[in-house]
Amino acid sequence: MKRRTLSVAGFALAATLAFPALAQNVKLTLGHGAAVGNPRHEAAVKFADVLKAKTGGRIEVQVAPSGQLGDDAAMVTALRTGALDISANSQGAVSVAVPEYAAYGMPFLFSTSAQAFKLLDGPLGQELAQKSADKGMVVLGYWDNGIRHMTNGKRPIAKVEDMKGLKMRTPPDAVLVDIMQALGAEAQQIKFAELYVALQQGVVDGQENPLANFHASKLYEVQKHLALTSHMFQMTPLVMSKRSWDRLSEADRKAVTEAAAEATTLQRKLSAEADEKLLADIKSKGVQVTTVDKAAFAKATQPVQDKWTALPIGPYVKKVIAAARAQ
């Protein structure tokens, strides 16, 4: 009887090694800070669905939206320690660990997201992915967080002088803080999940975000002036903890990579389609929309670019700027 038990156990082990499908189920958690309905969330759900289908249900991804697992900075820390598996995070928060991400946020560098993705989908993006891996994060895709615009509850913004003295919320992004200060505004960091109430209560006068984020979180209810500044592009890096990645089999890594590629295509598509449709809806909510003197705004923020090209990451920043201007 004892010999038979050992024989059965040995067979089970051999079968597991011979047939990867018999391997243990894998449960992963994907956290992000956007609201349900945002392209970021829709793509995260797509990633989970595709990965589940590709693995016959063996790999399940639980998506936690709206900062349920903490803000972006907290999720970056959790990724690097292995406490969180995957995050569709923010350019600013990831740049704290990998400063080179800041290169893509230089003021008025890209007029469309598509211009940025031409760089990110090539050698410059590959270099950034390697730098990310060195800091414990595996890049699964570069998603779109849009071209960013400014809103406030005090007055229309058309010229640089209109920014003076405004208390503007920023995410944890050092480049954005520099941009606000260069324009004469006061930058104040507030978690996105707390932004609506902060605007409602007058803790800050305004904020800046792509239209998709502004609309999905209904900030138009507490902000009646929108300036189409297009002051900055931001990506949403879809990153996986290297510790979680290293635990996956080669076949599972392939499935994760393929699912991420499909989700990335969807997220960029949804984001690109959003702006024109959302702008019309935002106007219908009673929000006053203005355009700005972009040449004057770009001139006022030139010192930001000068500062970042002088930092240790300067060589990479210069490569990104040169490639963007060559398009």
Q: How would you describe what is shown here?
A:
The chain has about 325 residues and is an alpha/beta fold. The protein has one domain (about 25-325): Bacterial extracellular solute-binding protein, family 7 (D-Maltodextrin-Binding Protein, domain 2, 3-Layer(aba) Sandwich), CATH 3.40.190. The chain is built from 14 helices and nine strands. Strands 1, 2, 3, 4, 5, 6, 7, 8 and 9 form a nine-stranded mixed beta sheet that branches. The chain is globular and about 60 Å long. The N and C termini lie far apart (about 75 Å). Residues about 1-20 have low confidence and may be disordered.
Mean pLDDT: 93
Which segments are poorly predicted (pLDDT under 50) over 5 or more consecutive residues?
A: 1-21
Q: Span between N and C termini?
A: 74 Å
Structural class call reads alpha/beta
Radius of gyration: 22 Å
- The appropriate CATH architecture is 3-Layer(aba) Sandwich
Helix content percent band: 40-55%
- Write the CATH homologous superfamily: Bacterial extracellular solute-binding protein, family 7
